[in-house]
Amino acid sequence: MNVALTGITGYAGMQLYNLLKNHPQVDQINVYQHDLKEAIDLAQLNPKLGTTDQEAYPYNAQAVMNHNQVIFFATPAGVTAELASPYLAANFPVIDLSGDFRLPDPKDYETWYHKTPAQAEELEQAYYGLADLEHNPGKTYIANPGCYATATLLGLAPAVQDGLIEPDSIIVDAKSGLSGAGKSLTPSSHFVQANENLQVYKANEHKHIPEILNTLQGWNNEVPYLQFMTTLVPMDKGILASIYAKVKPGYDEKDLLQHYQDTYADSPFVTVFNEGLPDVKSVVNTNDCKIGLAYNPVTNTVLIVSVIDNMLKGAAGQAVQNFNQLFDFDITDGLHFAPTLY
Fold this sequence. Notes:
- The protein is an alpha/beta fold.
- About 30% of the residues lie in helices and about 20% in strands.
- It is built from twelve helices and 15 strands.
- The protein has helices spanning about 10-20, 40-45, 60-65, 80-85, 85-90, 105-115, 120-125, 145-160, 190-195, 210-220, 255-265, 310-325, and strands at about 1-5, 30-35, 40, 55-60, 70-75, 95, 125-130, 140-145, 170-175, 200, 225-230, 240-245, 270, 290-295, 300-310.
- The strands form two sheets. An eight-stranded mixed sheet has the order 3-4-2-1-5-6-8-7, with helices on both faces. The protein has a seven-stranded mixed sheet with strand order 10-11-9-12-15-14-13.
- The radius of gyration is 20 Å and the shape is globular.
């Protein structure tokens, strides 16, 4: 099949292009770019892709729908809110890696993203594609979850869905590599500032907070709030979410582990450790999420460690996973990788 891709210049877009190139069900990738007036060589648009013998075309929604069966948007926030209408009207498949359709309430989007939201009736047509847990109810507009949200929600799902923890006790301390901040240079991502340093950033203001909380409350409406903090670490890729919560009376470490193993028993991309805790290197360059638990009976607190590659499981890899689900392909198509362990 033919697939369209918009947003080839960013890290997620480049990663997605490479995944789709090697996908057994993809015959052709057509790249579209908003600021083009005529077709140019793709390597001219993004030299990092090397010699591709492929052109990039000016963006046009009708051309996209005429020549493709799906479009991936790997664009910054605020873009698809303005471009989605023709696809929604035509029921044309979209996989959106931006945050524009993750929040069902347009007021929440405006508050957290400081941009003009999509219309409420359009947001209702989107499906939040947390691919390892949620089943698409037949919607064709898929909002791909954020990277921090993916690690955090996969780490919390069994505990929240099965009522194993006190719903008002969740604290998340999440750490990410520099690629999660995107390609645009900021004071915190400058080499001199980031190298050999740890930096807390966007304290209580990270855009993934509302999508995490919205999903948790959908699983369990007794979750009132979320304490969530992010730290930038000097590595290229990877997220490690350290999640703390008070365990409800009647559950011990063995019970917790059993619930986690039951939840993910059929998930090819989620591994629950029987003992010990995962590290970031074990998932970098894969679409995997690895989860480990450590229960402290003295404080009645469980530590849940969830690790992912933010560019794969947290972006392009999960987008391909959603693509596979949408078109009933094998869930692992295009997603067979080996981690870099050293």
